[in-house]
Amino acid sequence: MLRLGIKSLLAHKVRFALTASTIVIGVAFVVASFVTADSLRSGFDQLAEDINTGTDYTVRGELPFGDVFDAVAPPVPAELVDDIAAIDGVEIAAGGFFVDGVIPVDGRGEAVTTFGPPAAGSNWLEDESLSQFYLIDGRWPVGIEEFALDVNSFADYDFELGGTYQIVTPTGPREFVLTGTAQFGFPEDAGVGAIFSLFDSATAQEVLGYPGEFTAISVRAEAGADIAEVQARIEAVLPDGVEVITAEESADEFSEGTETIIGPFQTILLVFAFIVLFVSTFIISNTFNIVLGQRVRELSLLRAVGATPRQVRTSVLTESAIIGIVASLAGLGLGMLGALGIKALFSAFGASLPESSLPLTPRTVVWAVVVGVGFTVLASLVPAIKASRISPVAGLAEGTTSEERASLGWKRSAAGGVLLAVGLVLTGLGLFGDFDGATPQLSTLGAGAAITFVAVSVLSPLVARSVVSLLARPLAWIMPISGRLARANAARNPRRTSATAVALTIGLALVTMVSIVGQSLKVSFGERLASAFNADFIVTVDTQAGLPQTLSSDIRAADIGTPVGFSFDLAQIEADASALQAETGAIGTRLIETTLTIASIRDLDAVINIDVIEGGMDGFDPQTGLLIHSDVAGDEGLAIGDQVDVTFVSGDRVTVSVAAIFDGSGFWSNWFIDSALHDRVATTTFDDLVMVQSAIDDPEAARAAIDDVLTGYPQAVLEDRQEFQDSIESGLNTVLILVNVFLGFALLIALIGIVSTLTLSVFERIREIGLLRAVGMTRRQMRRMIRWEAAAVSLYGAVVGVVLGAAFGVATSAAIPEDIIDTIAVPYLQLFVFLVISVGFGLIAALFPAFRASRMNVLDAIADE
Hints:
By secondary structure, this protein is an alpha+beta fold. The chain has 29 helices and 26 strands. The strands form five sheets. Strands 4, 5, 6, 7, 8, 9, 10 and 11 form an eight-stranded mixed beta sheet that branches.
C-alpha cells in the first residue's frame, strides 16, 4: 500500500504540487514565526551579555513594584562609588548612565531618531575593561562642551568630527563639539539600532539631570573573590532603596523582560500561521474528496482483489503523510526566507527589527514536521474513512448520486446546527465573558470562531445551489452560452462549490471583521477627539522617552498661549476597602497598580474636557489633590474627600485626597495628579505630549510662533487637531494593513484551492468538455465558461465571508469597552470592493484550468472513460 500511495502521487504531479503548496505556506509561516522570535532572543541575549561585559555586579535604585522594563528605577548617590570601591574583594566600581530621550541633531538640522530602540545619553569610563563603549575614531569627550556619538548615527547622518551640534537633552537643548565616535560592544556592534550620545561623567550628571547621582554603578570583583560573599559586603553599605544584583541576575532579568515582548510577538505570528493552516485543511480535504471520487473504480478494484478497508484507508493516509513530509521540508527552507521577509516587512512599515542571525533550532524543525504532517493527515482523515467504505460492487457501479443527496439531508443539518450553536456560544463567551486573563479569553474566542467556520462549511451546501444560481444569474443574460453553462456548473454540485469557496469565506470573514473594528476605532476616536479636546495644537514625538519638560516652559515664556504637558507614570494606590465591604466582603485596604496621568490641573480645562460630574477643580491643591474617573469611584467605593496613599516608582509615598470625579474619556488614564506633585517624586523629566491652547487669534501666526520654539526641539512634531487625528488614524491604518497582509496568506491559500479544485474538475469532466467542443463550442467560449464558473464560486464564498465577517466585526466592536469604541461603523464601500476583488480572484485562479480545458484534443476527450 505504501508503494501504491507513492505511485499514485507520482502519477498526478500537478495535483500533488497544488495540494502540497497549501501546506508549504502554512509550515513556512510557522517556521518563520519561530525563527524570527529566536533571532530576536539571540540578539537580545547577546546584548544582555555585552551590557554586563567586565562587570560582576550592578548597584541601582530599587523599584518598590513593577520592573525595569515598566518604569525608570530611581538613581543612586554618587558617593556610593567610593564606598563600594573600598570594600574588601572589590577591584573597581564606576558610576554610569543610561538615560533615554537624548536626541542629537546633525548639520542639516535633522534629528537622529529611531523607532523602538532608545536614543540614550551615557558616559564613557576611563577603565575600558568596565565599559561597554569602545572608541572607534577621534578621542573621548572631556568637559561641558564635548560629546561623542555612536558610529552608526555618525555614518547615517550629517556629522563631522570637530563640528558643533545641538543635542536635545532632558534639561533642554544644548550645543556640543563632536570629538569622537564609539561603538557599543566590540568587535561586533551590539547596539541593536540604539543611538548613543556620550559625555564624561561630570557633564552627564549635569546635562542628563542627575546632579550628584548615577543611574547605576558597575562593580567588578577581584579575581578569585567569592561572588556571593562580596555581594553581601556590598549590600551592607547600601542605603534603603538601593539594591545590588549579580551580572547573571541582570542578564536573566533582561532576558525575562525582552521575553514579555518577544513572546506575544511570536504568538501573534503563530496565530496567523494557524489561520493559514486552518484554511489549508479545508483545501486538502476537498482535494482528497474530489480525487477519491475520481478513483472510485480504482479503489473498488483494490477491494475486489482482496484489499481490506483498513488497507485502503492506510493507502490514502500514506499519500497525505508523504505530502505532509514533503511540504514540511519545503516549508523549512521557505520559512527561513520568510523570516527575512518578516523583518523586511516590519522595516517597510517603519518598525525595524534588530539585526541578528537566523537560528534553526530542533524545536522549530519538530514543529514544522508535526504541523505539516499533522494538518495534512487530519485533513485527509474523513476522505480516507469514506474511501475505506467503498464496496467492490457499489464502487464498480460508480453510483454516487444517492450518497450526494443523502449528504445534504437532515444529518448534515443537525450536525451543522449543533456545531454552529457551540461555536456561537464559545464566541459570545469569549467576547462578553469574564475571564481572569487574556489567554483563556482569546483561546475561547479562537475556538468559538474555528468551530463556527467549520459549522458554516457543513451547512453551506444546503444553500449553495440556490444562492450560487441567484448570484450567477446575470451571467446567463450577458453570455447566453458560456454564462449559462458556467452558472449551471457552479450550482450543480453544492458540496464541492461550498468546499471550494470555504477557504475564501474564512479569509474574507477575518479581513471584513478587522475592517469593521478598525473603522469603528477610527470613527469613535474622531468623535471623542471632537468632544474631548479644546487645544488648538498638539506637540508629539516619535521617540519612546518623550519631550523634555523644558518645551512647555519655553512655549509659555514665548506668550503663545497655555501649554499643558501630559505624561504617564506607574503607581501603586492603597485605598480603604471599607466602602466596598457590604458588596464584596473586602476588609482593610486594596492595592491597585495603575497608570497615573500627570498634567497641570489648573490649566487642564484649557486643553481638554474631562467632564467633571462631582467636586470641582476650584481650590485644587497641586500637592495633595487627585482626580478620578467615575468608573474608579464606583469600583473602589471612593467619594469626594476620600484619601488614598500613592506609592511611586521612586519609593516615595504620598497621601492625596479625591478632589473631583470626571466622566470624560480620551487618551488619559482614570487617575490624574498634578505635575507639581510628580516633580517631587519623579524618576524621569519628560512629557509624552504637549497640548497648546493658543492665545493668538490667527492660526497660521500661532503655528509659526510655536514652530520658532520648536527649532530647539527638531524631534518634535507640531499638529493641529485635525492633523493629530489624521496621524493617529494613519498609524491605525498601518497596523490594519499589516494585519491584512498576514491575512492575505489565507486568501492566497484560497486562490490555490480554487485553482486545484477547478483543475481536478476539468479532469473529471474531460468527456463533457469534449462533447461541448464537438457540438461547436469554441476554445474562447470554453475558457470563458471555466473562468466565470470560478468567478461565481468565488462570489459565493465572498458573500458568505463578508456576511459572517460583518457579524463578527459588529459583535467584536460591541464587546470592546465604550471608552475605546462607542460607535460601530461599517465601511460598506470597502466591503463592496472586497466582493469585486474576490471575483477577480476567481478569474485569476481559473486561468490555468481554463487553458488546460481549451487545449484538450476533442476526439481524445470524447473517448475518455
